[in-house]
Amino acid sequence: MSSLLSQLSPSITNLIRLDHTHVLTAFHQYEIGSSPRLKKGLTDNVCLAIEIHAQLEEEIFYPAMRTVADNEVLRKSTPEHDEMRGLIARLRNMPVGDPAFDDTFFELMRHVMHHVADEETMLLPAAERLIPDQLCDLGAQMNKRRLELVGPRAPELASSMARSLSTGTLVGIGSAMLAGAYLLTRHRYGDRLAAARNRFARAI
Ligand SMILES: [Fe+2]
Ligand SMILES: [Fe+2]
Q1: Ligand nearest to the CA of 24
Q2: Overall pTM > 0.90
Q3: Distance between CA 6 and CA 3 in Å, rounded?
Q4: In 3D, which of 146, 149, 87, 76 has the Cα closest to residue 117?
Q5: How far is the CA of 21 from the centre of ligand 2 (A)?
Q6: Residue 141 CA to ligand 2 centre (angstroms)
Q7: Integer angstrom CA distances of residue 44 from 105, 113, 163
Q8: What is the Cα–Cα distance from 32 to 36, expressed in whole angstroms?
Q9: CA 13, CA 53: separation in Å to the nearest integer?
Q10: Cα of 46 to ligand 1 centre, how many Å?
């Protein structure tokens, strides 16, 4: 990673905190009485944001931490991501009107909140103590990889963004983090995005 890019990048620990904040904000927009359309948009957004965030941590952050630390929180991080992936798969295969949909969504929320608390109170401070000189370079790697991961899923993101935002709720998408990457990849995936938007507009 070029040193200039690394110097300009936010630290990976602050990028992770930002991702967490955006996902938790989206969780807090979900209410039992929300319309099925909004629930579905929020759920799709949250699930996509979690999947990409988890992959970024597994590819970039956790390996860097494993070179300097070995503890319970680090060891259980990837298995906890896998539990979230299982809940995400269940939500994706369930109609939003299913009586179990709300409970499954809130179960995912519980898992994420617990996991985020461990990361923010133990892993991130440990990274800032143990590898302070690597944090901006790792942040640059994370941003670069995020663009690669979000790009192919931009149509999916555009569709869920539209559903989340169309009610006038200031949800932000399960993540502005994804929205930022979305904007940066619009040119590359412009045609597919336009097609997805048109399909969505015809469907409503
Ligand atoms: Fe994590
Ligand atoms: Fe995380």
Answers
A1: 2
A2: no
A3: 5
A4: 76
A5: 10
A6: 16
A7: 11, 18, 9
A8: 10
A9: 12
A10: 14
The closest ligand to the CA of 17 turns out to be 2
Which residues fall within 8 angstroms of residue 80, CB to CB, at 6 or more apart? 111, 114, 115
Q: Which tokens belong to 163?
A: 């559903």
Q: Which residue has the tokens 């000189």?
A: 133
Tokens standing for residue 51? 């999947």
> How buried is residue 38: exposed, middle or buried, by Cβ count under 10 Å (0-12/13-18/19+)?
buried
Q: Which two tokens stand for residue 89?
A: 């798969």
SS3 of residue 71 by DSSP: coil
**What one-character DSSP code corresponds to residue 10?**
P
Distance 103 CA to ligand 1 centre (A): 22
Contacts of 111 by beta carbon, 8 Å cutoff, 6+ apart: 80, 83, 84, 87
Amino acid at 2: S
Give the whole-angstrom CA distance, residue 63 versus residue 43: 29
CA separation for the pair 159, 163 (Å, rounded): 7
Instruction: Note the pLDDT tens digit of each residue in 48-94.
Output: 999 999 999 999 999 999 999 999 999 999 999 999 999 999 999 99
